[in-house]
Amino acid sequence: MSFITSLVSAFKGGGGSRVPVADDEPVYATLEGSGSTRRPLSPVHPRQRYPREGGLELSWTRRARGGWHWLNEVEQPLVEQDEIYEIGIGEPAKPERIWTSDQPRFDLSAASLADVAAGYPGQPVWVRQSGSYARSLPLLLTHLPSTI
Prior knowledge:
The protein is an alpha+beta fold. The protein is 13% helix and 30% strand. The chain has two helices and seven strands; from the N terminus they run H-E-E-E-E-E-H-E-E. The strands form two sheets. Strands 4-3-6-7 form a four-stranded antiparallel β-sheet, with no helix packed on it. Strands 1-2-5 form a three-stranded antiparallel β-sheet.
């Protein structure tokens, strides 16, 4: 008897061992990471600069979901409706202050830096990308100075 004939015979209940078609009870599993592929990738390569005239210049490198090919001299498509970043002070889950930028950079004037450093000394400054469906995980840019 061929393999196919014995398999068909087993499903019909004749001869040989019976092969079950499905479980008697439903099987349940927890779905983890639901929607995680819709979250933008975190920015990378934080940079900070304190210009001579005062203030703080922050910048980072953006990344895009689906942009896995490194194309020289060509800007990667963003794969989001808009390029929006949230820059915050304090814990990302409950920021003390928050700003937005449509470029992968953010500048604080000397007066603004003095104001936030006095109000939130030593606090972390971070950035995350706001995507069409979710926000990226935050990237630590720097900590505010304790004194100016």
